[in-house]
Amino acid sequence: MDKVYLLKKLEQEIVDNKNLPLKSNLVFGEGNPDGEVIFIGEAPGAIEDEQKRPFVGRSGQLLRKLIRQIGWKEEDVYITNIVKRRPPQNRDPEPEEIEKYKPYLTRQIEIINPKIIVPLGRFAMNFFLPNAKITRDQGKLFSAKGGSASVGKARNWFVAPMFHPAAALRAPIMMQEFEKSFKKLPAMLKKLTN
Predict the structure, then answer these.
(1) pLDDT digits (tens, 9 = 90+) for 108-130
(2) What are the φ and ψ backbone dihedral angles of 88, each rounded to 5 degrees?
(3) DSSP 8-class letter at 149
């Protein structure tokens, strides 16, 4: 079945679900539904909420710049968040909020079926790797069980956690690590496609 259609259908399910927490604008995700790489943040910020697009603020500009610097195009990857609506005052998403949006992100990933999932920041990383530590594990490639009953069985997802671009913007040492880790992505992808 057509991935664009399936993603639109999933987006409409979120719109129709009045039990989901947070009442700001829906920021579903954007990019290539056949993308081999999906970048996942924790939740939209103020600019994302306003534009209804993921990662378009200052940290998003850094993310998109680094995507181009490694020779990829923004339209070749997919970008989204775990929580699809902005928490008030840009606070961290609460565990219940993450839990409520979890099935939708899981299905979004299943539809896109990327080769690599790049969680940005510890909230996104811990969604896939609950025992990981961002400072220790960012920039490495992990295999994690993922998927849902809708696929019939769990499958292995390849996960490459990285610092959140907002954290990299705040600390020069994190910026260096973030850029260094980002440069590893093409080699990771090549390893998984060979």
Answers:
(1) 999 999 999 999 999 999 999 99
(2) -55, 145
(3) T
